[in-house]
Amino acid sequence: MVGGTGGFKATPGSGDLFAHTIANDEPHKLNAAFNLNRFVSGDLVDEHGAAAVAH
């Protein structure tokens, strides 16, 4: 078995954030930085420590 999160633990959390966005018509503070405008502006999102595996 390969180590890492594999999305198993992230799926319920991302569902909660999507539900917040839909219900409130604005992103949750945890995922607000991951909008499509970051590709236009060049803003970087710090993902250090986002997974249990070393990158």
Structure description:
It is a single chain. This protein is mainly α and 55 residues long. The protein has a domain at 10-41. It contains two helices and no strands. The protein has helices at residues 10-24, 37-41. The longest helix has 15 residues, at 10-24. The two termini are 18 Å apart. The mean pLDDT is 77.
What is the CA-based Rg, rounded?
A: 13 Å
How far the N terminus sits from the C terminus, by CA atoms, comes to: 18 Å
Low-confidence stretches: none
The DSSP helix count reads 2
SSE series = HH
Please summarize the sheet with the most strands. none
What percentage of the residues does DSSP assign to strands (E)?
under 5%
The average pLDDT value, as a whole number, equals 77
Number of separate strands: 0
Bin the helical content: 25-40%
Overall, the morphology is flat
Structural class: mainly alpha
Brief summary:
Helix content is 36%, strand content 0%. The longest helix has 15 residues, at 10-24.
Search tags:
flat, mainly alpha, 55 residues
List the SSEs and their pairings:
Blueprint: H1 10-24, H2 37-41
